Amino acid sequence: MYNKSLGIFYGILGVVLFSSKAVMVKLAYQYEVDTLDLLLFRMLFSLPFYILILFLIRKKIPTVKIQAKDYAWLFAFGFIGYYLASYFDFLGLNYIKAGLERIILFVYPTIVVFLSWIIFKQKISRVQFIAILITYLGVLITFWDELDVAVNQVLWGGFLVLLSAITYASYLVGSGWLIPKFGVLRFTCYAMIVSTFCIVLHYVFDGGWEFMDYPWPVYIYGFAMAIIATLIPSFLVSAAIERLGASNFSILGSLGPISTILLAFVFLDEKLTLWQLLGMAVVIFGVTYLSINRKKQA
């Protein structure tokens, strides 16, 4: 019982800390920081910690023999799940509210169901299909009210964040069989290092080389994103999944949009209308219903 309660605590804290990332990005954007620069700060500031963790677990020998193709797949999933997903998300936050971003990202479990159906031919049950319809109805309600403000900006920003959800879902679907080979800690560290390499390479070819010219709060937000919204929650979530199981933990994920909206209200003065709150409630209900159904089928 104590182990489960601790898992719930770790899970809630991890979800809330992860959710704070969007608010920190929006706060940093107030200083007109470039998207690629901000993403570079996030990854470079967290990189030493992941390298340190790899060093500390270096004597832990994987139980399964790791082949060259496994490392190739790891690179691919690090590229998709931590580089592309993060880049699309940071770009999208230039155009939409932090609360709306989290609601769109929250639909990734429905994308996982679709990808599992397309790739692994896993049948979508009637209940799952209904839950998915409910979820996207909620997203539509949320968007509908926002379109009065700036149609093109909101649609483009929402599309970019949806791409982030799709790439992250692809990472979850594809890496599931690979994580047990490396172990959660080693796989996460390797994937983050791959992502950092991709971002640095991107910056070499496309960066503005102005990363030393920003006001000091930008670097504080970059460091906070690296530690508070990336490093710490990544291990809290791993600890929660270990104690609760992936299915039970996925239900706690419904706290993500709520915590982001509350944080955005406090720190960004973002206000949601009744229609947007209704849309958020519908999305949370749909995803939670889907998660509970998948848990029963597992």
UniProtKB/TrEMBL annotation:
An annotated GO cellular component: plasma membrane
Instruction: Assign the protein's first listed, main location to one coarse class.
Output: membrane
**What's one Pfam family the UniProt record gives for this protein?**
EamA
Keyword Phosphoprotein among record annotations: no
Q: Which UniProt keywords apply?
A: Cell membrane, Membrane, Transmembrane, Transmembrane helix
Q: How does it sit in the membrane?
A: Multi-pass membrane protein
Protein name from the UniProt record = EamA domain-containing membrane protein RarD
